[in-house]
Design goal:
Chains A, B: InterPro entries: Cro/C1-type_HTH (IPR001387), HTH_LacI (IPR000843), LacI/GalR-like_sensor (IPR046335), Lambda_DNA-bd_dom_sf (IPR010982), Peripla_BP_I (IPR028082). Helix content of chain A is about 45%, strand content about 15%. Chain A has about 325 residues and is α/β, with parallel strands linked by helices. Chain A has 3 domains: about 45 residues, no CATH class; about 130 residues, 3-Layer(aba) Sandwich (Rossmann fold), CATH 3.40.50; about 130 residues, Rossmann fold (3-Layer(aba) Sandwich). In chain A, the strands form 2 sheets. A 6-stranded parallel β-sheet of chain A has the order 2-1-3-4-5-11, sandwiched between helices. A 6-stranded mixed β-sheet of chain A has the order 7-6-8-9-10-12, sandwiched between helices. In chain A, strand 1, helix 5 and strand 2 form a beta-alpha-beta unit. In chain A, helix 8 packs parallel to helix 9 and helix 10 packs across helix 11. At the A-B interface, helix 4, helix 5, strand 2, helix 6 and helix 11 of A face helix 4, helix 5, strand 2, helix 6 and helix 11 of B. Chain A binds a DNA duplex (30 and 30 nucleotides) through helix 2 and helix 4.
DNA sequence: GACAGTTTGGCAAACGTTTGCCAAGATCGT
DNA sequence: ACGATCTTGGCAAACGTTTGCCAAACTGTC
């Protein structure tokens, strides 16, 4: 209903100037007598005034918008991160702008420029990829938080898990279970997360007596983790050395590997134990055969926003490693 | 790099006035001599000018923002709609703001007001729920497109499938297969989509000779379709009349029903044929046992944006029913 | 009763645009 | 050579805010 109500509308109704209303709206109550304040507050109520974020942004040089630049929304894990971040931002009075880069650096750059033009308050980069605009922006000191993958150019605030430790935990699990032929499946173009998971896994296996070439490694090309798992599965199950335990660095890779296993008539987890890192809740429903390191994506949003707020206040925010569960 | 470049920067460098630059930026080439145009274009290039969307929005009363108000991002189908819409909007030069209402009317209202304050160009409502602000906004003639669920208050532009026909197609499938005891599982608080799917299914079964009480109906409470399916599954499989074919009005409901079936030791699709309406690509990987009406969510974005553009041009846009595939 | 200090509130500029209007200068027809 | 018309471009207002600064009008003090 309130169509065109601005400070001027309120000011006219309360019989004061625009500046007085503005100050009251912004909580500077000392700048007016109690009587005036009351009159203005009444007027605000009466006409249903709400501050115009655009005018505010123009004047102050920053909007209430926060950009989330994500690599791929079709990935349930990222969708959950997006959803929880959106909720946390709203809670804090901000509005989330969502950009899906499909993992392409040019698109990421286009978005970064567009978002700066929008005077966004901050950037949340989920699984960011290296790109010119990113290093530029990161160097300029813009408020940003990296999620899942660390800043590909330099470092910066990070929210995620201890990927290396997660990989090691899976190695321990395989070893404790008495498995003899462990394997790991990962994307060829690894992010920092993938790499850390794999190297943590390998390092722990070495510590527990495996020789390096006794560990089967299979990577897959492309951006689709489903396809990566499926392709790698072909090589793993087709080779001479059949693994009896496989670490998949993401849920989707595990889905792909499992499909291949099914096609080959293998029993999961009977013939081969499958463990993934992600552990989205959907697994319980559609992939009960899958054991996972569960990453608490649903609380990422709160951590991300807490981090942003620290940065806005000028305080330090290095990294926040969240606890995972091996369920 | 270009930090604070505005029309004024360009104007100063080209030795013309701000207005001239503005007009040229907006393509009004006839308002200046070719020489001037060239000079201005050079200056724009040199300083790396990009129009400030905030200033523009303030002046023109509308931003380049389009609000997507979705019920639940954790649902892969909606995530895909969000992703494809985002891509189509970017293509057309707009920026998507994402709001997740978790199906709650108050939150939806909060968002609608916030988005109007942002002077968004249009609204995309995915699975909208009835709420005061929605009827208000819808009555005010704001540009909006309803997706998946029709406008709960009145009608408006719609993008979706012919839900009733989809339900009927499943009924035909069951009949043709010779199934004798069909069932349907749906959420108690049905959206227009759910209702149409169910009624299309029932109507066709009646046409093909079933009496109304021979058809098993099971609904479930709550917002989680997974849980709805799981709960309904308990009743369906626990009852005396075991169905031999079940229509689940969404993928997630089917996941829930299937889990229950597994727990009861039933073979899907051997003992009972399961068909869902949604058919997200993930099914091929994690639910090969599920037959689906496949809704082309990946092309929703393009249709939605095309619809918005029609509306912006003042042309009519009633509804767009997209073809589904029964795969 | 004069002076300083404090309240209270308004004026006006600024943020980056867009656009109606006006004014020179150029072009043309007669 | 003179008015009519067109071209080219600038001035200034406006969109809704915020905020530095100034000016009344109080309050209190000696």
């Amino acid at each position: 209903m309130p169509e065109d109500v601005s400070l001027a509308t309120v000011a006219a109704r309360a019989g004061v100037s625009v500046s007085t209303v503005s100050r009251i709206v912004n909580g500077e109550m000392r700048r007016a007598s109690p009587a005036t304040v009351a009159r203005v507050l009444d007027a605000i109520e009466a006409v249903g005034y709400r501050p115009n974020p655009v005018g505010r942004a123009l004047k102050s040089g920053q909007s209430q918008l926060v950009a989330m630049i994500a690599a791929n929304l079709d990935n349930p894990a990222m969708a959950t991160i997006a959803s929880s971040t959106e909720a946390a931002l709203r809670e804090a009075g901000y509005v989330m702008v969502l950009c899906d880069t499909h993992d392409r650096p040019e698109l990421q750059d286009e978005y970064l420029y567009a978002m700066r033009a929008q005077m966004v308050r901050g950037y949340v980069l989920v699984a960011a990829v290296a790109s010119p605009a990113l290093s530029e922006l990161s160097a300029s000191g813009a408020p940003m938080v990296f999620v899942t993958r660390r800043n590909p150019s330099g470092n910066g605030p990070f929210v995620g898990i201890d990927d290396s430790a997660a990989g090691a935990a899976v190695a321990d699990h395989f070893a404790d279970l008495g498995r003899r032929a462990p394997a790991v499946v990962f994307p060829r173009l690894g992010s920092s997360a993938s790499r850390d998971r794999v190297s943590g896994f390998l390092a722990r296996l070495r510590e527990r007596g495996w020789s390096d070439d006794a560990i089967i490694r299979a990577d897959g090309e492309g951006r689709s983790h489903l396809q990566i798992g499926y392709d790698a599965g072909a090589r793993i199950f087709g080779g001479r050395d059949r693994p009896d335990a496989i670490l998949c660095v993401s849920d989707q890779i595990a889905y792909g590997v499992n499909r291949r296993a099914l096609e080959r008539g293998l029993k999961i987890p009977g013939d081969c134990e499958l463990v993934s890192i992600d552990g989205t809740p959907l697994n319980q429903w559609v992939a009960p055969w899958l054991k996972s390191i569960e990453i608490p994506y649903a609380i990422y949003g709160a951590e991300i926003v807490a981090g942003l707020q620290l940065i806005w206040r000028g305080e330090a925010f290095g990294e926040r490693l969240l606890p995972y569960k091996f369920g």
